[in-house]
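Final report, Chapter 2: Outcomes

The project's central promise was a pipeline that accepts a single protein chain and returns its three-dimensional structure in a standardized token representation, suitable for archiving and comparison. That pipeline is now operational. To close this chapter, we reproduce one record exactly as it appears in the project archive, with the input sequence first and the structure output second.
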Amino acid sequence: MNVAVVGAGSWGTALAQVLACAGNEVTMWARKPEVASSITLEHRNPRYLCETELSSSVKATTSLGDCLSGADAVLVVVPSNLLRKFALDMAPFVSGELPIALCSKGIEEDTSLLPFEIFEEVLGHPERLAALCGPNHAEEVVRGISSGTVIASTNEETANLFRDLLSTDSFRCYTSSDVVGVELCAAFKNVIAIAVGLSYGIGNGDNTAAMLMTRGMAEMSRLVQACGGEPMTVMGLAGAGDLIATCTSEHSRNRSFGKLIAQGGTLEQFHKETHMVVEGALACKTILPLAAKHGVELPITECVRKIVWGGESPIEAAGKLANRPPTIEFWGM
């Protein structure tokens, strides 16, 4: 099939390579002309994963219309804060039947909408939409190291279509009908990864990281259930799987960012040094209004927000978190 990939960052590049290895023709949209030219002519992304030679079946353009022209399916891989803009920009070029998979992780700041809900609001036809999430570090996926992901859609045919488009010997795809649970997990795990990075940055060890990860999953479960998702989703690839990968790997930008903040760095510094968006930095703000709407308490998420956006000392914030009144392990569920 002819597949459009909107976005030429590390994850978009890795997914384009997976699609090509699965036998598809891929056209990427890139913002910078030099990136599009290099991908098409030299089969290499000069800014992300630049050590990997891409398949000759992958080309790129800076024209969104050209990228989407003739596409049988689309993967949208842009920062979550740009999703609405891209949905609006794509509107003139996509039909109501064109399958679209959303590979971005986050919650819209002003509306508390998930990626799926943003595209449904702008483009309609939710039955053709899917969400792709999982423990998928681009650096490993692009090299063909075995990975698994979950593709969620309210329509089984749509989920199966993207499963078949992306499945290779090294990229195993599972399907789900729980779009809300999958997308909430995808946004939430980045916040917990920042917390783990902060914890290591102030001198804590693996015991603390394990506590934060499991208590983070408890927060995740409470919110997923309150928003109408399935708590079991938190135990799957989009929840526990992605959380483990993001919290423990040196590839993780969110974990690395947390460690940098603990050592006196800034969000601006991280952006400048890596050219990457820290999705968890925005998510720790956008998740809380959604939680408040549903009456769900998220202590770790609130702690991360105060450190990243309120300037609170990581050591002081950690002390407050540790001194919360003791309770039963699975309260609120």
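Archive annotation: The CA atoms of residues 87 and 119 lie 6 Å apart.
This record, like all others produced under the grant, will remain available to the consortium after the project formally closes.
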